[in-house]
Amino acid sequence: MKSTTNRTMSQNHPEPQTGAPNNIAKPFPWHILFFLGPALLIYISISVYPLLDTLRLGLFSEDETGATFFVGLQNYGNLLFNEFWSEPFWNALKNNLKFFAIHMALQNPIGLLLAMLLSSPKLRLSGTYRTLIFMPTMLSVVIIGFVWQLLLSPLWGISEDFMYNIGLGNYFDAWLGKESTALITLSLISVWQFVGIPMMLIYAALLNIPEDLTDAAVVDGAKSRHVFWHIKLPLLLPTISMVSILTFVANFNAFELIYAVKGALAGPNFSSDIMGTLFYRTFFGFQLQQGSPTMGAAVATLMFLIILTGVMIYLFFVQRRIQRFQL
Amino acid sequence: MLAKQAIAAPAQSWKTAFLNPGLLKKASVHTILIVYTVIALFPILVILVNAFKTRKAIFNDPLAFPDASSFTLVGFTEVLERSTFDVFFFNSLIVTLLSLFFVLLFGAMAAWALTEYKFRGNLFIAILFAMGIMIPIRLGTVSILQLMVDLHLVNTLTALVLVYIAQGLPLAVYILSEFIRTIPKELKEAARCDNVSEYKIFFQIVLPLIRPALATVAVFTMIPIWNDLWFPLILAPGESTQTITLGVQQFIGQFVTDWNAVLSSLTLAIVPVLILYLIFSRQLIKGLTAGAVK
Hints:
The structure holds 2 protein chains of 2 kinds. By secondary structure, chain A is mainly α. Chain A has helices spanning about 1-10, 20-25, 30-55, 75-80, 85-120, 125-140, 140-150, 160-165, 180-195, 195-210, 210-220, 225-250, 255-260, 275-285, 295-325, and strands at about 60, 70, 285, 290. In chain A, a hairpin with a 5-residue loop joins strand 1 and strand 2 (about 70). Chain A is globular and about 75 Å long. Chain B has 14 helices and no strands. Chain B has a domain at about 85-255: Orthogonal Bundle (MetI-like fold).
């Protein structure tokens, strides 16, 4: 492609023909190395290599001196079937799935609704709403965790008062402190914080939909409900599925919120334990249990496999189907 | 006749406006958006407001603004005395700015190389970077820690900067590649015809052209770095290298019962981000919509 444009250009302008031999002789492309080298060096040595090394380390075990030796799949056998390891593992996985399910059920629909409202034509203050609603997303998960911990604290009673004022006082409870509600409450806090991401991405996608398309439908007599279900929503599907996979990865990699609010033990009684906190405890240890890099690596490998599975499903099924649809 | 019409017209327009379904719809749109804005902001505001109140006022009337009798800065003085907040803040600033600079520079350079030049391994490298968008760098923590121990970089800000550059590059390369592809070929070819070097083409023509994209990438890169707890906790937990997120987390862990101090430390962590956000939000949204309008 490039060479053809070069040729046509040099035919049009006699001047550059003197420089034409440069295109034929091929010296070592130093400039490519210069442009690509730094990024590649840092990315491979600090991201790609450690990840591969972690996958390798999961097949090893260590003794008291710290010396490692090959044990094959023994770590994984322990994690999946040996009660001491498997009970926390399956608990964390189950909790993580719940965490993700709550995000999917709430974050995308709310984000979609807000984006639709924000994109309504000639809406005043649209930019202000957008900026303000997105604000919590910018703050640290740790800070948000503490903020909600204070707000929901029965000690301060601010939520309790609020519930009384709207007539729901009897329903107030120390949600973060109860085994049955801690995880749900933490999920809701996370949804509250990150709803800005689907909102922003879907909003940008909505702006991308050509007006001719919706106008034509309206001229043809389509109601706004139909325009939404049959034109806008299908065109938004790539964005929505992208948001979903981003949420999936973020959820199965989450750690900060649980750690900030409930500590590394993810209490009460591990009811808010997810893969991230399990990974941290296994790797670093806590209280009586000693940390183990190799077991930690094994947990990380399983997290990697879970995330990889999700990404693969997204790439091969969701995105391929959408591409066909778009064409 | 004319006068009659003139009198009737406003009345009619008022009537139609009131019954106009468009206006009603507009009002309900605003109502929902306002309610959600309040939901999004209220929790943060409550923290900010109460940080400036006495302990008694915090508990007696948490929703009131501080007045002459309840206003106090005791929480802030406690935080600044009992912790090295200035150090935390400075550490976060250094780490974020350095990482950001290198992510943008190296990311733009790599994006340019991958989109502009055909060479063996181009596709493989592009896919390698793309995978980094989806696979969190956190999963390699065990080996990253080992690597940093071997390099004697534990408890240094360098370790954090290196990790954050690696963390930010994949998305930067992806977004910037998309933008570089939209630069018209003629521009580059014209420069090449004038025997302008590839380096000059990139730094003097391409880089200025992708400035809006750089701003977008900057915001996307900056936030996770500033807010991260994981890597500071594992790679640089030492007193002198704590970033603000870790510093606040540790501080609150120690002074749980001191409400003034807790609220003030949260406020000190929130306010700089809010200010930065208000400055950069326009850039961010511009970047997003610029990509969308194209």
